[in-house]
Amino acid sequence: MTDDTVLPLCARCLKTLKPGSGNFFQIEIHAVADPASPEITESPSLEAIRQEIQSQLSQLEQLSPQEAMDQIRRRVTMHLCNPCFQDWIEHPAGK
Ligand SMILES: [Zn+2]
Predict the structure, then answer these.
(1) Measured in angstroms, how far is the CA atom of residue 10 from the centroid of ligand 1?
(2) Of 26, 51, 64, 78, which is least surrounded by CB within 10 A?
(3) Using one digit for the tens of pLDDT, what is the confidence trace for 1-27?
């Protein structure tokens, strides 16, 4: 390991973490927007479907490809030192 190697920091307490020391966790979060199909209560007309597609496309035109993807799927990797991990894993959604 050279001096210019960037070491991970604990996402909560900012403690520098040393790979190979066994004193931290790497956490992978994969969040997906509601994966169920939309609930359709009545048969939409072809014109209604066409209008909905046009509406969705015009909304997407205002977003970058990354922003569009962020609306449906996010992957986050973070590191937590062991004490911060023990606290976080008991209440990952907050207290
Ligand atoms: Zn920490």
Answers:
(1) 5
(2) 64
(3) 455 678 999 999 999 999 999 999 999
